[in-house]
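Bug report

Summary: structure tokens for Urease accessory protein UreD differ between web form and batch submission.
Environment: batch mode, default settings.
Steps: 1) Submit the sequence below via batch. 2) Compare with the web form result.

Sequence submitted:
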Amino acid sequence: MTTAPARPEPASGIRATARIVAAPDGRGGTALPVLDGAGPFALRRLRAYGPGARVALVGAMSAPLGGDRLTLTAEVEDGAALRFSTTAATIALPGRTGAPATYDTRIRVGDGATLHWLPEPLISARGSDLRSTTRVELAPTARLVLREEQILGRAGEPPGRLSARLTVHRDGRPLFDQELCYGPGAPGWDGGAVLGGHRAVGQLLVVDPAFEDAPVAPRVLGATAVLAPLAGPAAVVSAVAPDGLQLRKALESGDLTADGAIQAI
């Protein structure tokens, strides 16, 4: 009697990490002593147009899929400046096992340092299940521009399940902490108190010590966007929209990065 060979267990997803370190180069600019990525993370140094360094994340493979565990860390040392972007949207897709995927981003910005964190949107495709967390630690004189955009479903399809949490601490104290859940199993996510039928949601958060002397005044930015000051030298634009293009316009309508706030790197 022979025994049939055991079937291999289905793949449970990939584990991948990436790390960025930006540091002063001693000549008034910013160097990138660490720029390391694996799996779906392909980091590329871009041409700088000023004292800050520029890095783009190029998706080297489809991710996150169900079961993936992805971690991205970035450190901007004292006095350095970094602009981070992605070359395309990130699409959360279902995996073969039905397990959720996780995408953890950890950021630290030192004294006198500036970070523009401006990825393209995250798209939650039908059948996907993603838990995304972003945690930012800011020194007292750090400056930050951070954009988050989520698109719920591709064209003509319902979204997957998406849980997204953004936490920002400044000088060791909480500045911003928000967690939102969308899609199947998330109660009330499509109701009038949350998205009201819209399929694009996001925020633009700006932290700048200059706001201590000139705080931002709250105001309504059209029918589905609002600009609100935070309890600290910071402000946030929050918006929902029918699609990603209108969402981007709504987030930029607050002029938080215009004169008097953080300039582009």
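Above is the batch result. After comparison, the two runs are identical; trailing whitespace caused the diff. DSSP finds one helix and 18 strands in the chain. The two ends are 71 Å apart (CA to CA).
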